[in-house]
Design brief:
Layout (H helix, E strand, L loop, with lengths): L24 E7 L7 E7 L14 E5 L5 E7 L3 E10 L18 E3 L12 H4 L1 E3 L4 E6 L4
Parallel strand pairs: 1-8
Antiparallel strand pairs: 1-4, 2-3, 2-5, 5-6, 5-7
């Protein structure tokens, strides 16, 4: 089960302006949610171990709420290499629901909007660097 640590949560009600990000902040701005039910689970990884499907191996986790088709999470992080996975947990069971063959029933996304081929995205495609100046990742939520 996903352990939840809420660092900072800000709901995005309008398109995000191109404002600077505070130092050391990873700002994850998500859009394209089909409804505001449930919650958004975010798992941030500092290496490939567990990415993207095992939130128990995540370096940091967070939870957000959806409003007007958008959600936002701001996490204080040290400079380094990261990747994250996002799940729109519509039924609030703290997990991504899938069909019997493993196709997601709920919305999801990964850093860099990385896409998988015949499975989940690879860490190498989703990884990015955070400098002391911080970084913003715009993520489009995908539904099957």
């Amino acid at each position: 089960m996903l352990t939840q640590t809420l660092i900072t949560l800000t709901l995005a009600l309008a398109p995000e302006p191109a404002a600077p990000v505070p130092a050391g902040v990873l700002s994850i701005r998500m859009h394209g949610f089909r409804n505001a039910e449930g919650q958004v689970l975010v798992a941030v990884f500092r290496g490939s171990d567990g990415f993207p499907g095992d939130p128990n191996k995540a370096w940091k986790t967070a939870v957000a709420k959806v409003s007007n088709g958008r959600a936002r999470v701001d996490l204080a992080v040290p400079p380094g290499e990261y990747a994250f996975a996002v799940v729109h947990d519509e039924n609030g069971n703290n997990a991504m629901d899938t069909t019997w063959v493993g196709i997601p029933k709920e919305g999801y996304g990964t850093s860099n909007n990385a896409k998988g081929r015949f499975g989940p995205p690879k860490y190498r495609d989703a990884k990015f660097s955070v400098a002391e100046a911080g970084v913003v990742q715009q993520i489009a939520i995908v539904y099957w």
